[in-house]
Amino acid sequence: MPTALAAIGIAALVAIPIGYLAIRAAEGRGGLGAILEPSFGWLVVRSLGLGLTVGVIATALALGLAVLVEAVDLPLRRLATPLVVMPLAIPSYVAASAYVAGLSPLGPFGQLLAGLGVGPVFPEGFTWSVFVLVTSTVPLAFLPLRAAIARVDGDLYDAARTLGCSRTRALATALRPVLGRAARSGFVIVVLYTIAELGTVAILRYDALPRVIYHQFLSAFDRAAAARSALVLVALVLLVIVVAGGTSARTRAGDRGRPLRYHLGRARFLALVPIAGYVLVATIVPLLSLVAWLVKTPSSGLALGRAVTGSLHAAAIVVVPSVVGAVIVAVVAERGGRAGRTLGRIVDVGFALPGLVVALGLSVAALRAMPSLYHGWVPYVLAMMILFVPLGVAAIRGSLASVPPSLEEAARTLGASRRQAFWRVTLPIVRPGVLAAAALVVISTAKELGASLLILPPGETTLAVQLWDAIEEARYGHAAAPALLLIALAAIASFAIERRGMKEAAR
Amino acid sequence: MSDDVVLEGVTKRFGARTVVSDVSVRVARGGVLAVLGPSGSGKSTTLRLIAGLESLDEGRILLAGNVVSTPELLVPPERRRVGFVFQSFALFPHLSVEENIAFGARDRGRLGELLELVRLTPRRAARVHTLSGGEQQRVALARALAMDPSVVLLDEPFANLDASLRRHLRDEISFALRAREATAILVTHDASEAFALADHVAVMSEGELLQHGTPEDVYARPATLEIATRTGEVVRLAGTLTARGTVATCLGEHEIIGPAPAYRHVTVVARPEQLVVDPGGTPVRVQRRVFEGASTSVTVEIDGEVLLMRAAGVLVAAPGEQVPISVRGPVLAFAPA
Fold it and tell me: What is the ipTM of this complex?
């Protein structure tokens, strides 16, 4: 019972920021009705336009890459997937920072262009935002598409050929049934990511909703306006989810004959060109830019030390409540029947909310309900819990689902109480999941930009905040170290998760 | 009290469905009861009720003379001292063989003895996922025995094993249970398993306990046609009761086991091994014969009725030929199906 109550409490957290945003927005000039003003309409158009543009381009590119990687006899095929997925380790605001720094007059590419007689390029506005966000989000659309194609039965292609289809038509016939859903789910994930992303549009100076909210909050200090904009952003997120009919992409795993491999013949090596091109703009250019700045700024290590200790400090405070919360929610969601699953879904909502919105709502709530807490850690920890407990739950639920109820029952018949059975049997078995959850929370805390900017207690910092400050002040050398460290952290995490997945699959 | 396990009028419902209906049964100290029934007959639920993994809706359960389950009372499983061997074995994957067995052990000093009993001493430090199915089975049994249980409950203990392993493990488990003089209840859908392991058999169907007795008794004198078919292969014949209290079929006149049903036309049931080749018997036509080594299964036909018989050794008659047969011993007579 106490477990269930705790889980309900965690689920209820999600309602706090949204509720207080609604209250605060209603109090401003014009009340909630102000949302209907034309200026808001323009904001929505700008954000939605960016989201849809990035979504369409990224999904199309991802589809092409997925077909090359999974349905074609590509040379070096096994290397291709990690290369295409690598940008996942580069948060898009880090990529944006890298492009801004690299193309600045003193940056490696700025100097290269100057040497070629080309004037300085300032990566700003809609086009550059689309470009950087597409490079960052292609893997998000690529993964479901690749998984779907990997499940296609190669016999379908052969059947289509024997029934008189040309090679290309046979390929299309085999792929079509699986691609629709996978492409849609990839598209939705990209759009959701794009419209909620603050760092990238702020660094590239495109006035999408998140950037406007941030400025309303900090620069103009107009809380009611910020609250209204944040509500609009939430509505936009919900709209995308509802219109797309959820984000789950569960393709039925059918009986599978041979894998699908379309023979390209001599064009095989040509097929490497688009993959190499993508790796160049999405991974190599940003890394080169950051490394170049790091090398030519000897003093960058000092600031890094402060950012690392700051991130560790924040993570240490966030990780315990988040992981405990994740364990509780995972147990209730996995073992609590229908009510438990519903609760799990409510907690998941937090993951879809932009960090900026959650932080704004909690800061409003703290000011209202408990002003003494406003400058402390409480709103920050709650924000991180709302955002990242769902990540932890996902990591733990996987392990928990592999523990059949009969194991706990066996422990009970052997003399262990319910609680002892959990501590002696269930928890040790799901320990890898719990550790993964902790790692995810630590890394996500270091990476989260929007929420950290708004409600990190005064004097505290994280890697993401340090990077942001350095870019704002055009001290690109100081941005390079935290940026590279963030990339390294995310790369290590995804490597570890990948290996664990392989280990579990091998069992 | 000499009964270790007593069920009195036990009823369990899941929603509107009654899965165990008014079941009463006793198991004496050191006795082994097999609960036989098809899947969905409520036999596994009965086991879970005894272990305290489910609460009951009516009746009561006593373990070693203490009331442990009533509709108002549910002594939790950890305080019942029941050793449960799960169908999936439910071994703890994060623990070694020895740690699994020691999990609920009362007396750790006797672990060595238990490992010896199930012949796992050389594998004591192994991780359980490296064990074969038979070894896992034995760990599960040793783990249940290690807590010195008042009763051992085995839920389809051989269902997850190869057919070749089953027989062997059946004998081993039987030996281990008797070596410990453990009271045990075994749930199975396999009649031969039930007969081989238990000194009493309870037949369940759709939540109800249909018959309860020694294996020989249940096999030879099934109370209904359904129990007859659940406990082994049967030969069915149409029969007519005679004035002498016997029954006449196309194979002659036979004594009836137990009271005759109150019908003139009845369904006569015999076991295949009761049909024997007999020079003075009724000629039947051989349809099919399958040589099985020690015996030969033969399908014969007479007056449109198809019968299964099991002849010792080799039957010389080829399909299409006639062979004279008769029924040895008394038969069962049930109300017409």
Answer: 0.78
